[in-house]
Amino acid sequence: MKINMDKWAGDIIEDEKVKNLPILFFPCLPTINKGVIEVINNAEAHYENMKNVIAEFPAMIGAMTGMDLTSEAETFGCGVSFSDTEAPHITGEIVFDRASAESLQVPSVNDGRGPVFVKAAGLAAQNITDRPTFGGMLGPYSLAGVLMGIERALKATIKDGQTVHIVLEKCTCYLIAYAKAFKEAGANGILIAEPTAGLLPPKHCDEFSSKYVKEIVDAVQDEGFFVVLHNCGNTKKLVDSMVSTGAKGYHFGNAVQMVDVISQIPPKYLVFGNIDPARVLNEGTEELIKETTKDLLEKMKPYKHFVLSSGCDLPMEVPIANLKSFFVALEEFNNGE
Length: 337
Hints:
Elements: H1 5-14, H2 36-39, H3 43-56, E1 63-64, H4 71-76, E2 79-81, E3 89-92, H5 98-103, H6 114-127, E4 133-138, H7 140-148, H8 150-159, H9 161-185, E5 189-193, H10 202-220, E6 226-231, H11 239-243, E7 249-252, H12 258-262, E8 270-275, H13 286-299, E9 306-310, H14 320-334
Parallel strand pairs: 1-4, 4-5, 5-6, 6-7, 7-8, 8-9
Antiparallel strand pairs: 2-3
Helix pairs in contact: 3-6, 6-9, 7-8, 7-9, 8-9, 9-10, 13-14
């Protein structure tokens, strides 16, 4: 369904009540008796869980595809290990030097498992008509880091930047096509996960991440398509670089204090974050979850452009009861309790 996303964001900023959009998909799979392998390979099953997440947590202000951050690298040729109880993970890199960077082929957006996520987003956009649908994908430097191996990619940014740029240009070419596929399918936006850029100093973040993210943003973002840039690293000194991409939304992990980052971002942009998905939402008690969430909400009172979220993608093992406590905490806060 077409939505004016500029108005959607503006309404959130103007509303007196704080909204909630955690990166939530995999924890709800057990409630529909499905495993990870099925939903990352079957668009209808994937959409079924997107619909299920909204049914379980109707306060979610958007529907989101699952964040399987191996799909893009697998399409380029990386090996992937699969399990029904956790998100897939990459088993080995494929770019080792300048020669392998130059020989790397840009795959078609129709290859691999990307079309599963695109079709699922399209089904959601057609059938979940009371809120926007977001696709998810890796950012360019994070994808390059998977293809090269993170340690090799980080060293190369210092010693052999040209090789990294060769890989980044190819990654960005594919990711622009992937983002356009989500848009053409009817999705209302994408979340670009660029966590590896959080390991870079600001100058390198500009050169090796934000420059390429901006190319993606410029290719797809408009009043009907909203880009959120996620970085769960230590981003306090990277905010200016992130904002230079032109994305209209920014999502932060729990490695930073939200007040340190949101204070640097113009109030016209939405800022999402950042309850710890592991120690709080997965392992925490109901009391800890409520206390931590309300403490963050109190600190965010001066910032109308804040949207409550998890600090990162929620792992499958997060209990549904804990997620309910997270949503109840926001409801109680909005009601003055």
